[in-house]
Design a protein that fits this description.
13 helices; 7-stranded antiparallel beta sheet; alpha+beta
């Protein structure tokens, strides 16, 4: 039989077969196009950073390098949106957030560790506010401009910071602060702050420090393109003094403090980040340290705060009992102030006995693994030689107890699970 298209009309079964074949060919062709397009997209799309803090993605996609000369800033019209009130906030019952920003080893990565900051959560206050407020007031009285000062060129930026805080805090914490025509009232302490007086009643950074639990620092760019610490209220830093760092560029602040791998891994990225940071793209980072005394403001274990040079970890008593070991963590936010262009650091310290955090599920084993993952440079910077033996013995024992009780399973931690938990 000779086959032709015309013959299909005389043989219905051939027509059905032909239609089926055409349908299959169309499906195969469509699938191949889709697959090719996906492969093309995958090959050109930036890889998702393995670091959960996404500082590389932030720098590439959230901030474009402004077309401006170093040291110059064109005021931005962007304004910080009024935040929603902190849910059920109470000066008596709102507990500090449990930041535990450490990961299982075996590797410890030195990174900037940035992640986007929700605009509502710029400042965190909790039921430790009375203790922080009293400690700061005492430190201001005792130490004054050793801890709080503002360079003349940074004064407008410091006043802008006061204005931003007086807008933000009454909206976020309405049971603690009340906005006024000239500034803000603290409803708990009875203090009234006039930020429009000329001159101000005190240094603007000192005044700002009385509002919140954080320490504060302002970095301003000069024509050499470097950012300088030109205003600060550093009252609770524990291990460093504003008087040592004031006026330094960002890079010298870190190199003078022997920050591990700063020049090889952090300096260039940090410089570019500061240059590109936009007012609408604030970020957060966390760090952690161990301390072998219970002083929040200054750790006397490393030497006198009034010494010409701080002795450092070599002065600390070795192998103190575990009850003297405290976990110190900082939550740092970085924002560009829109009018002045200054970059403001807020540095909130969380200070908890090691024995207390070891009551939390999985923490002893995770912290022990993290401490063991430090390289020699990080270990030296964090002082592990002075406390490591006692600390690790205690952490291992508490971890074993948790495993035996069935609350923790050996080896259950994965990178994905830790990424979901971080930094808590």
């Amino acid at each position: 039989m000779e086959f032709s298209i015309a013959s299909v009309t005389h043989y219905p079964h051939l027509r059905a077969i032909l239609y089926s074949l055409l349908t299959i060919i169309l499906i195969i062709w469509t699938f191949s196009k889709i697959t090719s397009r996906r492969k093309s997209n995958i090959s050109t799309r930036p890889a998702t950073p393995s670091n959960p803090n996404l500082e590389k993605a932030n720098a590439a996609s959230l901030r474009k390098n402004p077309d401006r000369k170093p040291g110059e800033w064109i005021p931005s019209s962007w304004k910080l949106p009024s935040p929603s009130p902190y849910p059920d906030w109470s000066i008596e019952s709102t507990k500090p957030l449990p930041y535990r920003p450490f990961r299982h080893g075996p590797k410890y990565f030195v990174t900037m560790g940035l992640r986007p900051m929700p605009l509502d959560s710029w400042i965190e206050l909790d039921n430790q506010y009375p203790h922080f407020h009293a400690t700061k007031a005492r430190r201001i009285e005792e130490r004054g401009d050793k801890c709080c000062r503002t360079a003349p060129e940074a004064y407008p930026a410091a006043v802008e910071l006061l204005e931003e805080l007086c807008e933000y805090l009454p909206a976020r914490y309405p049971t603690l602060f009340r906005k006024t025509d000239v500034g803000m009232d603290n409803l708990w302490s009875g203090e009234s702050f006039n930020i429009k007086a000329e001159p101000l009643a005190e240094d603007p950074m000192q005044m700002a420090s009385r509002f919140i639990q954080d320490d504060l620092a302002l970095m301003l760019e000069r024509p050499d393109s470097h950012y300088y610490l030109l205003a600060g209220s550093i009252l609770l830093a524990g291990f460093w003094r504003l008087s040592d760092k004031f006026g330094m560029p960002l890079s010298e602040i870190h190199t003078s403090g022997s920050v591990p791998q700063f020049q090889s891994k952090l300096e260039r990225g940090m410089h570019n980040f500061f240059r590109r940071l936009r007012p609408q793209d604030p970020v957060l980072r966390n760090n952690y340290f161990l301390q072998v005394d219970d002083e929040l403001a200054w750790s006397p274990s490393i030497g006198s705060e009034d010494a010409e040079e701080v002795a450092g970890w070599d002065a600390a008593q070795k192998d103190r009992a575990i009850e003297h070991h405290w976990f110190r963590s900082e939550r740092q936010s970085l924002r560009r102030l829109p009018r002045s262009g200054a970059v403001v650091f807020t540095i909130r310290t969380y200070f908890v006995p090691v024995r207390e955090i070891c009551g939390e599920k999985g923490v002893p084993g995770r912290l022990a693994s993290a401490v063991r993952s430090w390289g020699e440079d990080v270990s030296r910077y964090k002082g592990r030689e002075r406390y490591g033996g006692v600390l690790l013995e205690y952490l291992d024992r508490r971890h074993g107890e948790q495993v035996e009780a069935g609350g923790v399973v050996e080896g259950e931690e994965t990178e994905e699970a830790e990424g979901k938990r971080y930094p808590f």
